Amino acid sequence: MNRYAVTLTEDERKDLCELLSKGKQNSQKILNALILLNCDKGEWNVNHSTNEEISRILNISMRKIDRVKKRFVEDGLEVALNGKKRNRIYTKKVDGDFEAHLVALSCSEPPEGFARWSLRLLADKVIELGYIESISHETIRHILKKRN
Fold it and tell me: What whole-number distance in Å separates Cα of residue 14 and Cα of residue 7?
């Protein structure tokens, strides 16, 4: 496994210390800040700790320490504290037109032999009518719950 050397500047150390001393922060952000402060091999750090000591004291894995150090060296302080921003874009399967058809269908009379519409019946019926190619009953539940 690669070893990454963390060297913080005086300003970065000051920012991390302020982050730890101020009010409410995300617990993972605080852990990451503690890891960086203790792993620092710069001239501003008086007492450098080993990964084993940090792991034992903070009760975290060695792998987490290595990941935080790697993010700091490769991507910088902000990414090391907060993690990488996710940029995955999910395409929406359902639009307003489909929702309108679904609500109208759910308000109509249920099929013969049933007292009311079930989520699975609605899912099967909208596929049968050609409103959508495929959909789960759970998605139907989310749509109807949102429109309640």
Answer: 13
